[in-house]
Amino acid sequence: MEKSQYDLCLRLLGRLARQGILNNVILIGSWCLLFYKEYFTGVYFPPSIRTRDIDFLVTLPSKIKNKVNLSDLLKDLGFVPEFVGPKGYLRLTHPELIVEFLVPERGRGSDKPYPLPQLSLNAQPLRYLDFLAQNVIEISVAGLRVKLPHPVAFALHKLIISGRRAKQEKADKDRDQALALLHFVIKHDKPAKIKAIFGSMPKKWQKKINEVLTKLDEEDILAVLS
Amino acid sequence: MGVIKGVLKEELNNSLRMKQSYEKELAKIPRGTIVKKKVKGHEYCYLLTRERGKVKFAYKGKLSVSEISKYKRAKEYRSKYRKLLSQVKKQIRFLKGTLRGKESI
Asked: Which of A5, A42, A14, A33 is nearest to A174 (CA)?
């Protein structure tokens, strides 16, 4: 990874921390894989392919107290606002990073963006994000406390959403990342944690994960789950 | 290979959208730079712009400090966004080249 991209990421996290936003959001998406090396101490956690998107999950109801215009906060770093999709949810883009805010989708769901007036933006609602928010770890990155989903929760979530992806390449990427992470946890961390987090999932989700793993002949992981 | 190609395609689409966003932001920034000229001991402001390669000065009179700093900020952002736009264009060229291979993109 380019140093400039990592530096920009740290500057972004630093600004969010100073405004009291960072401690009320969870960093999700493939950037987590980079930061998991801080969690898996003592063993080498290999980096994985990822896009420039850096996603933050805002749990609902939002605990962000300060009112901050995020576009203005990041303007001098070179981020510009971009409205995506027919309903226009906002993301902030920079050649090195793309910042997006997501919220858990509940009930019947809707394709409308979810307004976050505290940040003067709207977020994209997505399914299954509550599960990530229920299994959070905290790590230290350059002196900043960053919340991430537990690696096992991250991997199991990826397995579930891989079945919902419209694009095959994205589904393959989700599965590859999930399997690599689960195999790593089995080999170097606490496999019991996989069973515990899996056990906390609704039966329907467990069934979905079992189906995916059976299809992929992932016997090692299935053995840990059973 | 499919995963890497998928990521590259996604990044190309991101860069194409990003290019539009920077062009849109650049279009919003007021054009020109404020320059000061001294006439008979008094300083007057002019807005310097270029039109078809020719430099033009538009008389602005005496501007307040906040108005001058507004133009100064606009100049800084213009320069920053142009640099970032050029970076995005390079990314697009690179990604298109990488994805081209034997099939059309």
From this structure: A33
A77 close to B (CB below 8 A) = no
> Under a CB-based contact definition with an 8 Å cutoff, are residues A49 and A76 in contact?
no
A83, B24 contact by CB (below 8 A) = no
Mark out the alpha helices in A47-149 (DSSP H runs).
Answer: 70-75, 129-134
- CATH code: domain A1-149 is 3.30.460
Task: Calculate how close chain A gets to B70, using CA atoms only, in Å.
Answer: 14
ipTM over 0.85: no
Q: How many Å apart are CA A9 and CA B3, to the nearest integer? A: 24
Per residue in A25-40, pLDDT (tens digit) is 999 988 999 999 889 8
The total domain count for chain B is 1
pLDDT band with cut points at 50, 70 and 90 for residue B1:
low
Percent of chain B residues past pLDDT 70, beyond the cut: 94
Cβ pair A169:B21 closer than 8 A: no
Nearest CB partner across the interface for A51, out of B5, B7, B25: B7
Q: Using one digit for the tens of pLDDT, what is the confidence trace for A73-116?
A: 999 999 999 988 777 788 999 999 999 999 998 877 777 889 99
pTM exceeding 0.90: no
All structural domains of chain A with their residue ranges = 1-149, 151-226
Residue B11's domain comprises 2-100
Is B105 within a domain?
no
Judging contacts by C-beta atoms under 8 Å, the chain B residues touching residue A50 are: 7
Taking CA–CA distances from B83, the nearest residue in chain A reads A78
